[in-house]
Specification:
elongated; 187 residues
Length: 187
């Protein structure tokens, strides 16, 4: 366990290990994400100056439904750090966009796709879906067919919104080889 006088880190970490590919993996409580990320960025023996990626997993059946991963890079020490935290559906995470500027985009994407709210985010709005879109498409409880379809109708000369319908009548699934008896022709 890492020990330092500035922050007693043991109370924030729930799991800490060194992976086989020489990276660090740290599992922390969601309430302390901002403190820990600031510490790992500013400490002179760590200097994780870049946020490479921010990703999420939806574990639909678990109590802590979402899992967040911060992938950090220290160029000076040639080291990667993966910070992980488990979240319940209603948990609010502190935004780290004032520590890593590129987190702004990642957090907006997480809000749009998963519905995870980031406290103190400067511009938390939809980024990939329409502003009137209902729901969050990467959640496992989101319907597979969606809700509405947006298309341009040439007859009425405008964009129309319709209930989504997926036509399956033209999809014919057979296990026949499209090449016919290709192997028998080789003889």
């Amino acid at each position: 366990m890492i020990k330092h006088n500035l922050i007693p880190l043991e109370k924030y970490f729930t799991c800490f290990y060194y992976t086989a590919n020489k990276n660090f993996y740290v599992k922390i409580n969601y309430a302390s994400i901002k403190k820990i990320i600031f510490f790992f960025k500013m400490h002179t023996n760590l200097l994780y100056a870049q946020l490479i990626d921010l990703s999420f997993i939806d574990h639909f059946e678990r109590k802590f439904r979402f899992e967040i991963f911060y992938n950090l890079l220290s160029i000076k020490y040639n080291s990667r750090l993966i910070l992980s935290s488990a979240l319940e559906e209603q948990n609010i995470i502190s935004s780290v966009s004032n520590i890593y500027f590129n987190a702004n985009w990642y957090e907006r994407e997480a809000w749009d796709m998963f519905g995870i709210y980031f406290n103190m985010h400067p511009d938390l709005r939809r980024i990939l879906t329409d502003y009137g879109f209902k729901g969050h498409p990467l959640r496992k409880d989101f319907p597979m067919t969606g809700y509405i379809e947006v298309r341009y109708d040439a007859f009425v000369k405008r964009v129309v919104y319709e209930e989504l319908s997926l036509a399956q009548e033209y999809r014919i699934f057979t296990l026949d080889n499209g090449w016919g008896n290709f192997n028998s022709q080789l003889v």
